[in-house]
Design goal:
The chain is mainly alpha-helical and about 325 residues long. It contains 11 helices and 4 strands, in the order ααααααααααββββα. The protein has a two-stranded antiparallel sheet. Helix 7 runs antiparallel to helix 10. The protein is globular, with a radius of gyration of 20 Å.
Length: about 325
Amino acid sequence: MLYHIIAFCFGFILDLILGDPHFLPHPIRLIGSLISHLDKKLNSNEDERNDNKEFKRGILTVIIVLLCTIAVSALILISAYYINRYLGIVIETIMTYQILATKSLKDESMKVYYCLRDKTLNDARKAVAMIVGRDTENLDEEGVTKAAIETVAENTSDGVIAPMIYTAIGGPILGFTYKAINTMDSMIGYKNDKYLYYGRAAAKLDDFVNFLPSRISAYLMIVASFICGKDISGNNSYKIYKRDNRKHSSPNSAQTEAACAGALGIKLAGPSYYFGKIVDKPFIGDDLRPVEYEDIKRVNHLMYMTAFIGQVICLALLMIVHLIA
């Protein structure tokens, strides 16, 4: 337990320092490659669509990805600790760092901020297209800004707090298992003709594993909004969260988005285009003021504060378990 606590702490610090350098190989990209390969092999015959077969192949994809993820991460971690406990701590620290995405989320969203600040809207559209699933080529400045804010808000749960919780509970093996589920949902969990049945198992599993973490993340964000101070309202964050946290087709996506919209005093969500088709989504929050690109910096401040609070709580609980044991 003590080794796990040390690795858990330093992995978080390493993520804040390094983020996700694109020139280095990353396990999540390898998981993504496996998902893409299985998608091509099991879900490429568009001329003979069969709902039942696609659903079963989707379940097979989930099983293969999870088994590979668990086997590889367990082999690496157990082997490292078997060789030497200090090597084990180092490897677990690196694995924990690779599971978290705090700095990379900030870095990618700030690319959008700098493009908007420099009045290069086309570049901002390209930058935000790298981190959202919606169509971005026709978004105006407000649309691009909202897309970036919503991504940071939602991924405060998916990319920071949820993997942090699962890694605290079960180490990198459970942490990478969560990331594999989340990656499958982001790649094949769409409700379109190609993935409606093939990606259903991945999407439902993602809903299940994120049900509690998304709500914990929202309350941590509300607490963070009380601490952040200027331009961020804790009272309004709680108010809008209680009112709008179910305004999404997903049971989880509106949780942190509602807390964020209330904290910033802006209106998020609403109709968006996905794969050329408009999806009519309800608005979240109130437009107490216009959305501005400075809100991207504010949501990152809120995300970082939420991450720090989550880390402190996880470490405190781990220490209590260690002392009791």
